[in-house]
Amino acid sequence: MNYRIAATLLGVVFSLPASLYVPSARAQAVQDAIYLGAGIGRDHARVPQVVTNGGGNVVIGSGNNNTDTTVNIYGGYRFTPNWGLEIGYGQIGRHSVTAAAGGLTATANYDINSFRVYGTGTLPVSPTFSFIGKIGAAHNRTSGGSVSVAGGTIAIGSDSANSLAWGVGGELALNRQWGLRLEYEDYGKFTGNDVWGTGGSGAIKATAWTGSLKYSF
């Protein structure tokens, strides 16, 4: 997604006054509630490419975009029909990347997950449909790593990073309690800025599209 488009959508949701639309009693009951939700989607993890020298050998680490299924759960509270707070956790998926050095090729596998805290903005455009935007912070982590090389497998450590996170999407109220969401989220960095140990290769980053079912109390 183009970052300028995403920034524009966030700006619209967070800047337009609530007076533009007065929701119906049913919509307001939904929007003011405590809510929980869960869903699945598709994520994209971006790994930086690197070419450097290590131990007298040229090390080539592939840069690629991995995709996998993501599972997301969240809960929140809308203080008003327009403003709220939300926390969420996502199991982003399992990904892999390769590196080559000295005639050997290594494949690294890793799992990534994310815990987020958002401030949310909601712009109702009908009694049953709203645009949503959120911005906040994420604590992201890679774990379960292993490297396979020369017929053997070696376990590797975990890494984590704190990052700016944001999302945009739409929400359809099915009735007073149940609703459907479709969202795009950018979780930011999942590692430090030296994925390959070369002093500046860049961080693993991830985004995701998710659809979810939400229940309001």
Explain what you see:
By secondary structure, the chain is mainly beta. The protein has one domain: Porin, CATH 2.40.160. It has 2 helices and 11 strands; from the N terminus they run ααβββββββββββ. A hairpin with a 4-residue loop joins strand 6 and strand 7. 36% of the residues are buried.
Please provide a brief summary of the model.
With 217 residues, this protein is mostly beta strands.
- In helices, the fraction of residues equals under 10%
Structural class: mainly beta
The CATH architecture would be Beta Barrel
The total number of structural domains is 1
Q: Major sheet: size, sense and barrel closure?
A: 8 strands, antiparallel, barrel
CATH class: Mainly Beta
| CATH fold call | Porin
Number of helices: 2
